[in-house]
Amino acid sequence: MLTALLVMSGIALVLGAVLGFSAIKFRVEGNPLVDKIDAILPQIQCGQCGYPGCRPYAEAIAAGEADINRCPPGGEEGIRKLADLLGVEFKPFGGGTVQKPKAVAFIDENLCIGCTLCTQACPVDAIAGAAKQMHTIIAPVCTGCELCVAPCPVNCISMVVIEEKITTWKWKYPVYPLAPVK
Amino acid sequence: MRTLYQFHGGVHPPTNKTQSTRTPIAPAPLPGKLVIPFHQHVGNMARPLVKAGDRVLKGQLIGMPEDGVSSAVHASTSGTISSIGMEVVAHASGLPDLCAILIPDGKEEWVTHTGMDYRAAASADVRLALRLAGVVGLGGAVFPSDQKLRSGKHKIKSLVLNGAECEPYITCDDMLMRERATEIIRGAEIMRFMLDAEEVLIGIEDNKPEAIAAMRQAAAASDDKMEVIVVPTIYPSGGAKQLMRILTGIEVATGVRSTEKGLQCFNVATALGIYRALRFGEPMLSRIVTVTGNVRNAQNFEVLIGTPVNELVALADPLPDTNLYIMGGPMMGVPLPSAQVSVVKATNCIIAASDKLFPPPPPALPCIRCTRCADVCPADLQPQELFWFAQSKNFGKAQEYSLFDCIECGACNYVCPSHIPLVQYYRFAKSEIRALEHEQTAADLARERYEFRQSRIERDKQERAEKLAQKEMAARQPAATPEAAPDNSAQSHIQAAAERAREQAATARPKNIDALTPQQQAEIAEIEARRAKAREMAHPDAGRPKE
Amino acid sequence: MLISTFISKPDTVSAIMLRVLLALLPGIALYVWYYGPAILVSITLASITALATEAAMLRLRNRPLKPFLGDNSALVTAWLLALSIPPLAPWWLVVVGTAFAISVAKHLYGGLGNNPFNPSMIGYAVLIISFPSHMTHWLSPHGLGQTELGFADQLAFIFGGHLPSGIKLDAVTLATPLDTLKTQLQLDRPLKEILGMPIYGALAGKGSEVVALGYILGGVYLLFKRIITWHVPAAFLGTLFVTAGIFHLVDQAHYVAPLFHLTAGAAMLGAFFILTDPISGPTTPMGKLIFAAGAGFLTYVIRVFGGFPDGVAFATLLMNICVPLIDAHTQPPVFGKKDRGAK
């Protein structure tokens, strides 16, 4: 009886020591969850989620303050990935967010007055131009967040939907001919 | 006797080649119009050099190769460019692409062209000449040939010339080898010289005895070490990797250049194109196209690039129940979106299809894991597993199981007893994965730029605070800086500018354009063009945005 | 446009399954020769039940009837199950087994192509666990029983449970050779004496050993038609032979010769028809070898040390569990990623 007790408590002590040691030795720095969430978010920085960028939204999700269905650019695929990562159920878009086709901003240079308000709004520095100089969008780096549209005092910025072309065309999922029949 | 090697799998579909080899290659007559796409090759689209209304000569450069992997585009005959715009092209998507429409004048007036001595010229100059002649691989991949003729750091042992032509129905290479063997061998000599290869191996399937005989005769007359090797008929022996395996026993893995293994492979028709481009300075203006299938007179034609498919097939007299045209063979071909699309450099065969010729498959049943697909896969894949992952959109797993090693040869489709469109699933998964990777790079770039901006703003704020503190220290005058006022003035400035802009927009027509010198007008036109280009960059396809 | 390849071999799932049924015919013919036509009644019953259950399940799952009822896969399940249970089994036993196999083991897992376990073996396992006594009444082979039943009497027993007056069930049935061997060995009778009993023939059970040869014939046909590959039969029979051989060499008094194990029970049916089921089996050549070798070993262990008379069914099901694991670890190298034949 006594030996059994001793053996058991001995094992408990050893295992406890191992656990304690590894907790210190293999400690993970920072909050990798935020990084993982941030890696899933599309980095459009559009703020449609109600947070001023993707990283703040990721932090809010990690802290449990925000829902996972607030990111329209990420698509349902994004929600699914977040649900997978966080071990929660998938849920459809909510909170008044709407999905739009991918687009880039376009500045009508005939109207632009060079006020720089849009360059200040752009989260990814995708607008080139100085004060009183004509501005233009650097299309390849524009994320289509639309944050520049509202500040423009002369309404010279419009969003142009990116249309499918041969180089970006994708093969469709084969429609399985065994559709359920009534 | 040379030892031949085998690749795993392969199938033996009915070849159906004799229909189109009964008559020699016939030149197709000049069509009513030519639709010449600027993107017929792998890589970047060629930049248009002509505009609507221009008169062009046969062989005139109309599309300049862009940087990197790209190739040139030429006017296939003399005539007038009637327009440059988006036309539906021979692509599975059915989407339009930039094309020049050329109305032939029937004079076939050549641009001045001369050949060059490839032995005397520098290798880079020869490659530039090929690039400007629009020479691309005619086996189907349309990869610019100049890129493949760089003699790099690896020693090339064998130059493989692909005359296997394993796909059913197609006979364009067969007929080309029968009729123009000497020119092909001349082209092979050029390639061997440029690559400094030790030997040239010409692989031809044993179902083309006439081509083998002709090529043997021509090869024997060459000074170079050339060998015509008869390979057994099995699909897909004409795949570059499969043929290299058969001839040399060397397997070139995905992501490895064949040159690293001392091999380089070209199609026989490409060899001919290279020869004509260097010997005579003739760019690639035409190619041999097999027109077969549901037609009365299946035959091979020498067709000008840009000839509309309907004008071409009319020469072979299609039967009335034809309901689809396929570009390529029945194993790997793509259905054409319409009969109005034009012949491009990749068009080796046009098959007129009907429900009788190619009966629609019965409805697909679930996979029963019978592994017939794995038994025939020439890339040693497990197609049933790839199908499983592609079907469930489990792309990570699909990549883990080497999805991108799939050459889309269709052998698995051919044998599947459940008639599952397997290749379709693989193509879907591949393009989804590519799109996802593209999105991921875009997101990474955006994150990087966003974070940089955040840190810059933070730094600016700090610097300003420091400066302010310094100023305050210097002045020792804690007088309240009028913060609100300048802000207000900035606001009113913007307001005023906005008003002005609105006026301008209302009377947007520029003034003083009546009495301009031509030079000024040209300047204005140039500026307008730049603006248009900016617009295009913002929105590369449709030109003008909706206001 | 959906089509990616415009031509295809005129091969269908339905034709493959039909060839499997064809391959079973020699075995069935010999079965009838030795045991009378009762087995045909079981097969018919099982077939009707299978098709009816299949149709009902397809309807419930909202799937089209025509392509799936025509694929013959339900018939293969039905025939294999009917051949695994005693021919004189009451009609409801066949019906319950088949219905369970088709509805639970096949359709609840997603129908054709999705069942992780061999449906007929699930049906067999359910029956032998639920109704063990009914599963032991095997007809005695031709010329061995005290009396023999006519076809009318067999029908009457299958559907009504009545035997002609004056005949007891024991008079027309026997335990299987494997079962007899096990019980007699437990009674400490010497092996030689047991094998001298009238139910034993040249290799194993009289009659059943010949039926096993019939299955081999069908198996060769399937190999020839490339419906199955050599891997599974060879690895299964080989492992069974070697395992039995080792035990036999160590102790000849208690462990029967390996050829006995190959021709007794469901070994041949399993080697050529049950373990070769592509849906519940592995796909890679190496995987097939591992899978079948495991099944051969387990079959021997269950037969000799387990509580059930035969081990093929449980060995199959146990190895079915391992299939995803086996497949994942036996992926052959892809083109260019191996050293083979190159100089």
Task: Compose a concise summary of this entry.
The complex is a heterotrimer of chains A (182), B (547) and C (343). Chain A is mainly alpha-helical and 182 residues long.
Describe this structure in words.
The complex is a heterotrimer of chains A (182), B (547) and C (343). Chain A has helices spanning 2-25, 32-40, 54-62, 75-86, 117-121; strands at residues 103-107, 127-128, 136-137, 157-161. Chain A is mostly helical. In chain A, a hairpin with a 7-residue loop joins β2 and β3 (136-137). The longest helix of chain A is centred in the first third of the chain and has 24 residues, at 2-25. Chain A is elongated and about 95 Å long. Chain B has 547 residues and is α/β, with parallel strands linked by helices. Among the domains of chain B are: 18-30 and 127-289, 3-Layer(aba) Sandwich (Rossmann fold), CATH 3.40.50.11540; 364-459, no CATH class. In chain B, α5 links the parallel β10 and β11. By secondary structure, chain C is mostly helical. Chain C folds into two domains: 12-174, no CATH class; 175-327, no CATH class. Helix content of chain C is 61%, strand content 1%. Chain C contains 16 helices and two strands. Chain C has a two-stranded antiparallel sheet. The termini of chain C are far apart. The interface between B and C is large, with 64 and 42 residues.
β-sheet strand percentage of chain B: 15-25%
Weakly predicted, low-confidence segments of chain B: 540-547
Which class of the domain at 18-30 and 127-289 in chain B in CATH terms? Alpha Beta
Provide the residue-averaged pLDDT of chain B.
88
Identify the CATH homologous superfamily of the domain at 18-30 and 127-289 in chain B: NADH-ubiquinone oxidoreductase 51kDa subunit
Rounded Rg of chain B: 29 Å
CATH architecture of the domain at 18-30 and 127-289 in chain B: 3-Layer(aba) Sandwich
Strand/helix succession of chain A: HHHHEHEEE
**Sheet/helix structural class of chain B:** alpha/beta
